[in-house]
Design brief:
- With 125 residues, the protein is an alpha+beta fold.
- Helices cover 32% and strands 26% of the residues.
- It has helices spanning 9-22, 52-70, 100-106; strands at 26-32, 43-49, 76-78, 85-89, 93-99, 116-119.
- It has a six-stranded mixed beta sheet with strand order 3-4-5-2-1-6.
- The chain is globular.
Length: 125
Amino acid sequence: MKNLYTTPPEALLDAVIKGLDDVKGCDITVVDLKSITHAISSFFVIVHGSSHTQVQALANSVEKVCWESLSEKPVSVQGMRNGEWTILDYFDVVVHVFHEEARTRYALEELWGDADIRKIETVEA
């Protein structure tokens, strides 16, 4: 079995972003929490899909890419069945996959004003 914490957070972040981009995740945002005292992880990744089906597909794609490229599995997955907000917890990277309406309602990015927040540019096919 793979030891915990062996994958650098940046490599895991890259795999997460690839998984989201593969399924056309909307408005991929990275919240860098490394400079925040007592933050629970190094990065939050926030993305949304336009349907419940896409929310599930985004979460599934992240799991697939992280496993196939890094042999990493999330320690916890919550909300997969409801299609509104799914959280994949990889310790150093926590992925929040929202339905578009839920993302607007929760405004998670606004809670981390002290963090470095950047939008990921994706290439349209």
